[in-house]
Give the backbone structure.
Amino acid sequence: MDRYEQALRDHVRPRDWRNPKPREPYHLLVVGAGPAGLVAARAAAALGARVALIERDLLGGDCLNHGCVPSKALIRSARLYADMRNALNFGVREPANIEVDFAMAMQRMRRVRARISRVDSAAQLADAGIDVFFGVARFTGRTAVDVDGTELRFKKAMIATGSRPLLPAIAGLAEAGFLTNETVFDLTVLPKSLLVIGGGPLGCELAQAFARFGSRVAIAHAEPLFLPKEERDAAQMVSAALSRDGVEVHLNARVVCVRVEDGKRCVETVNDGNVTTIKVDQILTGIGRAPMIEGLGLEAAGVACDELAGIHVDDFLRTSNPRIYAAGDVCLEHKFTHSADAAARIVVRNALFLGRQRVSDLVIPWCTYTDPEIAHVGMYVRQARERGIPVKTFTVPMHDVDRAIADGEEEGFVKIHVREGTDKILGATIVARHAGDMINAITLALVAGIGLSTFARTIHTYPTQAEAIKQAADAYTRTRLTPWIARLLRFWVRK
Ligand SMILES: Cc1cc2nc3c(=O)[nH]c(=O)nc-3n(C[C@H](O)[C@H](O)[C@H](O)COP(=O)(O)OP(=O)(O)OC[C@H]3O[C@@H](n4cnc5c(N)ncnc54)[C@H](O)[C@@H]3O)c2cc1C
């Protein structure tokens, strides 16, 4: 508990906080104060609604406390170490002794987190007119919630209780002990060796970061490629990047058991019948997320759910109880902060203002923050084919982009899929050091119905890595030059 941790707590769980006297009934009662809950509560209060926000742990939820914010802060420090080791490539002599100070990197992460937590502070929410209740919420009926013995009544409610780490059923794992995203950011000493179980975004991001800090990292993933959702070439680049950073990659490897020997965790994996034993100091699991539905009294509220999908919602995010809505990880397939945010805004409109906004209309991009980053929006080729849509893909490798060459960041590509014969963008995958930033332009195009040819007509600042998108658009424009038009142009020029 250093001063940064204390500052965080002062914002997101003040020691001397007293829950307000309930005003009743609330126009909107929100359970869970992660990104979804905070956005809905703020938006509803700003529009004049009487709002209650209930949080059992820390305001800000996973994103601020155990997810996006701490992971991205750590990834930044790890990238700096990687860049320093590569300094000679840029004409800078590598410092004689690059010393990783993991404790300081973790302290920086706590400083960053404390700073960002200001906007989520209980005091600010109260100033915005929101009644903030700390305690565990449990529905006691179709219009009432109990918070540690206090009953709150509502006209409309939104469940935004998020998700928790899915724990793998591996013999001996619980006895041996392991880290999850809820505990890994509490480390102050760098594990000498670490096995990451799971090659999704969390596993890949943290495996690379810890390897760059100097941990001997292995990663075991049960499938043949990391990031199973992504296109093969993108996923292969992640494998190559991890290997280059010294991560021992075990693909198609199922972890079957763990035992402790001489203070080390010995993990057995099976690949094609071959058993491998990996000896490590720590294990981090990141095999996926499970919706947080336990103990919510959903039966009493008449809200249908299941353990896999979480709370059942319709396209308007309404549950089986028409007074109760849900948003965020607890009900969405795409478990991201920005989708939780967008869904919460839909709930406010639909629940309080007779809106008819559909969650299926959202265009949701995403990004895995490895180095290089992998970002995607819209359809994959296989999805377009499943729907019988003919696809043409325009790909520009980053090694053809001047700024990427100048930056020494040539790894990756921009790949844009259009409906064949048109410039209608169906989807895109970008692998680049700043792919997460670059994908936003394509997302805007998808939302606004802007075709790929507009990128060709748009002047991009030179030199920037985003020019790769324009280069893909130029490639599309060239396909419009039919032999007949080319002949006509040649004739015109020679005239
Ligand atoms: C390591 C990691 C890195 C990530 N990085 C990114 C990223 O870079 N970008 C991105 O977009 N997403 C990222 N995510 C995902 C992102 O954190 C989640 O999608 C987001 O936090 C979901 O928001 P939410 O509001 O639905 O739920 P949460 O953030 O989980 O918040 C739910 C809140 O509800 C509270 N709660 C639960 N039950 C009760 C109850 N009964 N009573 C009262 N309160 C309750 C919880 O305590 C919690 O505070 C990451 C996740 C992890 C784990």
About this structure: The pocket of flavin-adenine dinucleotide is lined by residues 31-37, 54-57, 61-63, 67-68, 71-72, 136-137, 160-163, 181, 202, 292, 295-296, 328-330, 335-338, 340, 369 (CB under 6 Å). The mean pLDDT is 96.
